[in-house]
Every structure is written in C-alpha cells, then in structure tokens.
Amino acid sequence: MNILILGGGGREHSLAWAVMQNPKCDKLIVAPGNAGIAQIAECADLDIMDGGAVARFCEENAVEFVIVGPEAPLAAGVADRLREAGVLVFGPSAAAARLEASKSFTKEICDAAGAPTAGYARFTEVEPAKAYIRAQGAPIVVKADGLAAGKGVIVAMDVDAALEAVDDMLGGAFGSAGAEVVIEEFMEGEEASLFVLCDGSDILSVGTAQDHKRIGEGDTGPNTGGMGAYSPAPVLSPEVEARAMDLIVRPTIAEMAKRGMPFQGVLYVGLMIKDGQPRLVEYNVRFGDPECQVLMMRLGAQAMDLMHAAAEGRLGEMQVNWADDHAMTVVMAAQGYPGAYRKGTEIGGLDDLPEDSSHIVFHAGTKAEGGAVLASGGRVLNVTARGETLSEAHRRAYEMADRVDWQDGYFRRDIGWRAL
Ligand code: AMP
Ligand code: GLY
Question: Which of 271, 324, 346, 372 is 20 to 30 A from residue 244's alpha carbon, by CA?
Fold first, then answer.
C-alpha cells in the first residue's frame, strides 16, 4: 500500500515510524515532513490545507491511504475532498471535526448525549457575558469558541481576569474564533487523556496519556504545546477508562452518527478526573502532540492496521495487542520558547543515540541543511523511550536527552513527576 501522512511535527514522525514498521506499507510519503521524517520516508512539498491539491497528489502518486495528522486540514474539509475523490482517509469530515473546531458545538453534543462536563453558558455580547461571570464568581473558565492554536482558553482565578478575557475575545483578539465565547464552571481534579479510534459506529481505545503543558519544572510558567508526556496515565485506571467510554465517548459517537455526521478517525478525549469520576474537558479530532509519540512507541506496527481498519469501517474486528509497558517522551525546545526563540542552531550527537523499539528521537521542528540538523521551530525534538516500568522509560529518555549536543536546547527534568 502507498501511504501519505499529512503534517510535519513530532506527532507525524511517530506516525511515520509506526507505519514504516508495518510490512503492508510499500511506500510512505509525508507532506511536508521534517529532517527526521526525511530519514525514513519521502517528503513532499504540498499545501496540506488544499484538499483538491492533496487529492490530485494522491492520484499522481498512486496513494491508497491518507493519514491526517493536524486538525487544521480536517476542519478545512481535506478529508471530505479525499473521500469524494475515492481515496481512503483516516480523519473526520469537516462536520465531525467541529468537535474540536467549535467549543459550543461540543457542549451541545454533550448535552444531547448526557455526557458529564462542566456547566456552561454561551455569549456573543460583552455585557451579558460579564454579568454571568459576576454572578458565578471565580475561579471560572473563558473559552473562545473556535480554533485558536491552543491559546483560546483562559482559566481565570479571579473575576477581573475573566472579565478581561471576555473583552479580549469578543473584542476580536482571536478573530472569528472569538466571535462567541463559552464560559465554563472551573473543574477541579487531575487531567488525563484517552485516545479512541472510531469508524463511525465502533470504537476502540488505543491508550491513555498525560502531558505537561507548562514550560517550567513543577508545572509552572506559561502554557506550551506540551513539554513531555507518558503513557499509560495511572489516574485513568481500567475502571475510570471504562466509565469514560460508557458515559462520554460511546454516547458522543452515537449522537454524531444520529445527526448524520459519523466520526471517523481518532478522538482525543481530554478528561478531568476527581474521586474516580471522569468529566469531559475537551475533544480534539486528532492525536495529541506529544501524546501520539508515546502511544506509537507502545503500539508499533499495529497502529497502522488499526487506523486502516477505522478508515474502512472494520474496527469491530480489531483489538489492541498490549504489551505490559510504559513510554515517556521528553520535549527539547529552543531556549526562549514559548516566547521568542532562535532558529537555525545546530544539533549534534543524534547519530550516536540508540534507535530501537525502546529508544527513539522523534523530530518536531527540524530541517536538514548540508548534512547538519538545524532547529527550525519552538519544540524541536521528542526524546522517547519505552520500558517495563515508567521509571525505566524515564531513565532511558533522560540518558538520551543528556547525550544530545545542542547548546540552545532546553528541556524539563521532571516529566512524569506526578506518576513517579
Ligand atoms: P482546552 O483547550 O479546552 O483543553 O483547555 C486548555 C486547558 O485549560 C485544559 O487542558 C485544562 O487544563 C484547562 N481547562 C479547560 N477547561 C477547564 C475547566 N472547565 N475547568 C478547569 N480547567 C479547565
Ligand atoms: N498536547 C496537547 C495537544 O496536542 O493538544
């Protein structure tokens, strides 16, 4: 089978790595890819937001299966265009991608499905939103309705911060994504994520993970795309996971099917867990980054068979062959990230690192230039390891991170502290 993966981050490197282990893959192309992906697959320069262009590329290159990494092309309808062109694709339609692209849509689906989530109200006008915040008090959470690159959520610890967030969002700081705001009850508890493949009707869990969003050790400082992750998440015990599947995921998938917008792809279920009871924080319609890296490390080659079965509507026949293992990824970022950072600094030592089923460095923002690997983004490398225990995965990941020769690199030393 000829396969195309859309995207070029650490998530897509880990997807490419898993696909390449599978003997059913004859040829793999990744668009746009990065320096690490280029070592294992062909990279193509293609506008992944243009569904017509992607469909033509598939025809010209005899691509039979497309895996979509990020949410933006999904929300833009790229999967719809591919299906119209008769190409098999892993990823939801634009209609189903609204589970990530619109927070108020997700709330409406949760209401209809009876899925436990934070109490909320929706506003398009400043004054009623502010009156609601004053009446509810703090802490309280203000969210821009649409896609805002992970920056559209303000967890306000006091009323003034919430009022300011309303002014910013409805004042246009987030463009059309902030034309409506959702104001939510603040939920206490421990956060963890559950990843569920869906084929429109059947569902299959492909694992749990926890990430560290803050830049600084002890989970302090500004939010980032994620500074590290590990799988499984101890807080999502089999009992809690089963509860989340029964109360949240299954009713959501049934409601989407009932509305004529069946969800096919991976559902990223962000949960808040308190006293063993899960409530939904958010859905995403793609794998997490860096959570995907630890899931792929654990699943290996079978990940491709599972995604292929989801795309073909055969998930009911499938099961995951779990090993009794743990995985951890440590994100190496450019100094200064998530603020201003330098690009183009050289990274050495990568060729001397072990690369096997327990050790791999996935690339995120890198590019190859004249035989050297250069940093080209904020989050640059995902140093990933597997072990029989989380401590073993942790030790292996940090041994590798310490051997990377990158003066400008920064990483947290405490990934996994809660679980360890
Ligand atoms: P979201 O983009 O919806 O995942 O929100 C980003 C982060 O804000 C989440 O990962 C949580 O840490 C936090 N958050 C969002 N909604 C709530 C809520 N209702 N209560 C507490 N924390 C929340
Ligand atoms: N690591 C969080 C995300 O992918 O949304």
Answer: 324
Instruction: Give per-residue pLDDT as tens, 62-71.
Output: 999 999 999 9
Q: Whose CA is nearest to atom 5 of ligand 2?
A: 288
Report the predicted TM-score, pTM, of the whole model to 2 decimal places.
0.96
Q: What are residue 303's phi and psi, to 5 degrees?
A: -55, -40
Q: What is the pLDDT of residues 300-326, one digit of tens each?
A: 999 999 999 999 999 999 999 999 999
Mark whether 160 and 253 lie in a shared domain.
no
Beta strands 220-223 and 140-144: pairing type? unpaired
Ligand nearest 364 Cα, by number?
Answer: 2
Query: Which amino acid belongs to residue 87?
Result: V
Nearest to 269 by CA among 252, 293, 256: 252
Final residue belonging to a domain, choices 91, 109, 140: 91
Find the CATH number of the domain harbouring 48.
3.40.50.20
User: Which sign does the torsion angle of CA 173, 178, 180, 184 carry?
Assistant: negative
Does residue 104 lie within any of the structural domains?
A: no
338 and 397 in a single domain? The answer is yes
383 within domain boundaries = yes
- Pocket lining: 382 vs ligand 2, CB cutoff 6 Å: no
CA of 291 to the centre of ligand 2 (A): 7
- The total domain count for the chain is 4
CATH number of the domain within which 380 lies: 3.90.600.10
Say if ligand 1 is within 6 A of residue 270 CB: yes
CB contact at 8 A, 183 and 129? yes
Residue closest by Cα to atom 2 of ligand 2: 288
Give residue 133's pLDDT band: very low, low, confident or very high (50, 70, 90). Answer: very high
Could you list the residue range(s) of the whole structural domain that residue 171 is in? 125-179
The whole-angstrom separation of Cα 277 and Cα 275 is: 6
| pLDDT above 90 as % of the chain | 95
Query: Which ligand is closest in space to the CA of residue 268?
Result: 2
Residue 114 lies in a domain: no
**pLDDT score of 149 more than 80:** no
Establish if 420 belongs to a structural domain: no
* Ligand 1 neighbourhood includes 281 CB (under 6 angstroms): yes
Cβ of 186 below 6 Å from ligand 1: yes
pLDDT digit string, tens, across residues 219-245: 999 989 999 999 999 999 999 999 999
Residue 21 in this model has a pLDDT that exceeds 80: yes
User: Is the CB of residue 148 below 6 angstroms from any atom belonging to ligand 1?
Assistant: no
Mean pLDDT of the region 363-373: 95
As a whole number, the mean pLDDT across the chain is: 96
**Element containing residue 410 per DSSP (H, E):** strand 409-410
Tell me, yes or no, whether 313 and 330 share the same domain. Answer: no
The CATH number assigned to the domain holding 152 equals 3.30.1490.20
